[in-house]
Specification:
There is one protein chain. By secondary structure, the chain is an alpha+beta fold. It has a domain of 110 residues: Gcn5-related N-acetyltransferase (GNAT) (Aminopeptidase). Helix content is 26%, strand content 33%. Strands 1-2-3-4-5-7-6 form a seven-stranded mixed sheet, with helices on both faces. β4, α2 and β5 form a beta-alpha-beta unit.
Length: 160
């Protein structure tokens, strides 16, 4: 059986994270902002804050001790209503997609902090639209609410 776990990304591992983050951001922008109206998708102003602000948490997704992706957790509320925690970025690398690794990693991420969570999904990302409701349900999400904000869906839910 495959073991999926999350571990903190140390400040000495920033370069490795950046090597995964930048292609992820470009691929996401290719779908949701192909004309680059929002500028360089790799411009990530809060990157360094993940090692200086306690409410931000960078995590590796490990599969049998191999890095299979990352999760960035913070407290930014995409709905503007406030939350205890939010999935800022979630990336499972291609070799591990559609294997159940993402579902296990999402559930593990939600157990890092009990309370009210939020995450936003762009309408243009059809696989993510299908994935996140399943992940929230698998994690035992309660009081699930969806807020529609034009090109995005915001999921609000309680865990823990």
């Amino acid at each position: 059986m495959v073991e999926v776990r999350l571990t903190p990304i140390g400040s000495s591992e920033k370069t490795e994270l950046r090597r995964m983050l930048d292609p992820y951001l470009v691929a996401h922008a290719d779908i949701v902002d192909p004309r680059r109206h929002h500028g360089d998708p790799t411009h990530y102003p809060h990157f360094e804050s993940y090692w200086t602000e306690p409410e931000r948490q960078p995590l590796w997704i490990l599969v049998d001790a191999v890095r299979a992706g990352f999760v960035l957790v913070n407290r930014y509320s995409p709905s503007g209503l406030g939350c205890d925690a939010a999935v800022a970025e979630f990336c499972v690398l291609a070799p591990w997609r559609r294997t159940g690794i993402g579902l296990a990693a999402a559930c593990a991420a939600f157990t890092t902090r009990p309370g009210l969570w939020e995450l936003q999904v762009y309408v243009a990302t059809a696989p993510a639209l299908a994935f996140w409701p399943r992940a929230i349900a698998a994690a035992g999400g309660r009081q699930v609410e969806q807020i529609f904000l034009g090109d995005r869906h915001v999921h609000r839910f309680q865990v823990g």
